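Protein entry
_____________
===
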Amino acid sequence: MEAALFPPMAAHILLIFVGAISMVALVGIAYNYSLTRSTRGKIARVEELERDVKILQRDIKVLQDRLPKDAMPGNADIKPAMDKAAGAAIAGNVKPEVWQGFVDDYNNLANSMNIPKAAEACENFVRNNKVQLLVCVESEKAEDGKALAYTAVDNVESSRYWAWNVTGEPDDFAVVPNPLIEYNEELHHKGGMKETFASNYETGSFKQVQVKLPAHFTLRQGKWVIVQPGVIRVK
């Protein structure tokens, strides 16, 4: 019988050692793979945010050109905010806005308008979030170069805009469209929507809306004033 290369005990120890090294190597490979995927995910997220910022810049510019001058802040007010957002996106350090939770909940609600109790869901949302209900009146003023006028209404079905009071800012409101209302040409052209929100709307009727950026309104001495338009997508 030939002599073994290693004594039995040494061979067992060597096998255990090799197995342990293999396990460590596998863990290292798995960790590196996970880290690589995480890094790629963060890069993809930053690229997505950069694209969103560019889209918002374009849409706000289009809407700014459309609004009367006294109803819209100048470039000096908007550009620094956009530059700050773009810088944050590039750095990967994007802090959610105060209104982001409200908008996320709203978009979830707006995606559910095909359910039987959609109206009831909207009533609950308005009540739970203490939303103020608005309509645009005298929208033809925009064609004459004057600021739009908005007024409060009492019920959800007759409202066209929902205004949520921004936490810690008693005069500031994040404003979104009423998701119950079908988005059509009359609402777009005569209901103040085209001045209040930049959108992908061209023609036709749509039953679903998603908010990318809420409009910013102020309420002072009982008067609603649009400070900055929002961005929506209809589908």
In short: The CA atoms of residues 55 and 231 lie 9 Å apart. The chain has two domains: 9-91, 100-234. The first strand starts at residue 132 and ends at 137.
